[in-house]
Design goal:
Elements lengths: L11 H20 L1 H4 L6 H10 L9 H12 L3 H18 L4 H18 L5 H17 L3 H18 L3 H17 L2 H16 L3 H20 L18 H16 L8 H25 L9 H17 L3 H9 L2 H13 L1
């Protein structure tokens, strides 16, 4: 990632001009999104829109709750989504003072906007939460950063996606682990391993079965399909099976090109490495005792928590990338410190 710092320095005027141009372009496309963009990006949003229109097809589900939230916003929903999009693009570009960083901001931003910010969806809110955390970290205000993490993530877990409680808990655990001394770190890892061994088989099954159900839907019901989808290869209700399935998913999702070589898959894989590598490096350095405490350490732990939890249930490369794309502000925040090391 040091190569991102190569090249001439760009002035604040240049980066702000690029940011303004990106925001204007985004606004124009947003206003014509239904005509210009593929139907695939509107799949989940259409379920929410059905609930907003008064249907009860998904009553009691997270789509219903999201529909109620967006209904409360009312006529301001489109400005709300566009405002998040403009905020994202400004955040990504304003400090991209090298050509490499500018290119990284573009790659991260295009994916995030494409998947999450042309229509109101549950992941639109995740982008906003990531921006709150990243902004607090960028400003060097720990209290604001912690509040931006704890309050929105807790509310999101309660109202929309319960597994976000697992993401939040894992992020806090990783953060604590990077702050412990070597001996305490070993003890903490031992306790975590013991706790994993005591998890009931029913919970292990619940954590993994979502992938198999999603793959079965993609294979037999979805009109879109999923070429890179895969099933869990081992039993779901045992610890060895859980570990085997998790390691297999780690390989399939992060080295998809080994199973499905192709230009599209390689491009998506590169994007994932760009988005996740700075966080992995920061957390690994913290666990090994090499990294210094900084405002970016908590965002790094949060990104890695998202990655780790996603590998429990993501059925294919596209879904994996789509969910992680909402973390673009955190990835960009972490790319900047990496390039200065």
């Amino acid at each position: 990632m040091r190569s991102l710092s190569v090249g001439p320095a760009l002035s604040a005027g240049v980066t702000r001009t690029v940011a303004a141009g990106a925001i204007a372009s985004y606004g124009l496309v947003y206003l014509n999104a239904r005509r210009l963009l593929p139907d695939t990006i509107f799949r989940d949003a259409e379920k929410i829109e059905q609930q907003m229109a008064g249907a009860d097809t998904y009553a009691g589900s997270s789509f219903d709750v999201a529909g109620q939230l967006f209904t409360a916003i009312g006529a301001g929903l489109d400005p709300f989504v566009m405002g998040i999009g403009a905020w994202l693009l400004w955040f990504l570009y304003r400090d991209a003072r090298r050509p490499g960083l500018m290119a990284a901001a573009t790659l991260l931003g295009v994916a995030c906007v494409f998947f999450n910010l042309f229509v109101a969806s549950k992941d639109t809110l995740v982008v906003a939460m990531a921006l709150l955390v990243a902004t607090g970290a960028r400003q060097g205000r720990p209290i604001r950063m912690w509040l931006a993490l704890l309050l929105p993530y807790t509310a999101y877990a309660v109202l929309l996606r319960p597994y976000y409680a697992l993401i939040l808990g894992l992020a806090l655990a990783l953060y604590l682990l990077t702050r412990l001394g070597p001996r305490r770190r070993i003890v903490a890892l031992g306790v975590a391993l013991l706790a994993l061994m005591l998890v009931p088989p029913a919970i292990l099954h619940t954590l993994q079965v979502a992938r198999d159900l999603a793959v079965q839907y993609l294979q037999f019901q979805s009109p879109y399909g999923a070429r890179t989808s895969f099933l869990n290869p081992y039993p779901l209700d045992s610890l060895p099976g859980f570990i085997g399935n998790y390691l297999y998913a780690c390989l399939r999702l992060n080295l998809t090109v080994l199973w499905h070589p192709g230009v599209k898959e390689a491009a998506m894989q590169f994007w994932l490495w760009l988005a996740a590598w700075p966080a992995f490096r920061a957390v690994a350095g913290g666990v090994a005792g090499r990294a210094q405490a900084s405002p970016a350490s908590l965002p790094a732990c949060l990104v890695m928590a998202h990655v780790a939890v996603s590998m429990l249930f993501e059925p294919d490369l596209g879904s994996y990338m789509r969910h992680l794309s909402a973390l673009a502000p955190l990835s960009m925040l972490l790319l900047r410190p990496v390039t200065r090391q």
